[in-house]
Amino acid sequence: MFDRLKIICLVTCISIASCTQYNKNKQVNSLNIAINGDSTYKDTVIVDSHYTFTEAIDGTTAPKEIIKELELIDVEYYSIDGKIHKGQILTNKALVIDLKMIFKFILKSKFTIEHAIPVVKYNWYDDLSMQDNNTYSFCYRNEFFSKHAKGMAIDINPYFNPVHWKVGYEYRQNKPEEAYRDTTINGTFYASHPVVLEFEKLGFFWGHNFKAKFDDHHFEK
What we know:
- The chain is an alpha/beta fold.
- The protein has one domain (46-220).
- 34% of the residues lie in helices and 17% in strands.
- It has seven helices and ten strands.
- It has helices at 2-36, 39-42, 53-56, 64-67, 96-109, 126-131, 194-201, and strands at 46-47, 70-78, 84-92, 115-116, 134-135, 153-155, 163-165, 205-206, 213-215, 218-220.
- A three-stranded mixed β-sheet has the order 1-3-2, covered by helices on one side.
- The protein is globular.
């Protein structure tokens, strides 16, 4: 009888230990899923954009030599709903490594990006893209005037970080219309903001420092 009780106690202890180890393994596996991109984790990501490269350049008037310089990359970020979203940036190949690093930093720091969608969605009207607070890089226009024409610039949350003109240029229109800057809102830049510093560390010029305007959403190389 005594031996039977010892066996029951031993089996019970083994069961408890096994359950504990199972729960630990389950936690580790869950962490690995989040890190390694298992399909279960991917199902929780909200997709904002899923263009092919051909679709993302459809309708652009850019010459072939510029289109050859472009690449479409996937990026992940926390959006305004507090959830992880997947968007896309159509950009110059020369910026791909930098922007992937920036968006890893943005995701890790939980900096809000409302969405990131190629401007083809807005029929190549960047004003509409800005009004929608859309983050984007390439949009063809006068290439001597704008770095966006070759995908060598990126605008982040334009509605949170609108263009406003400096003293002497106030007659010009701020963009997007009716947008205002509130640095208490996650997704808004200010001097010494960690994301701004990360861009500058990689050699980007911040549009806040333009001579005539505060272009706070703009970073270029």
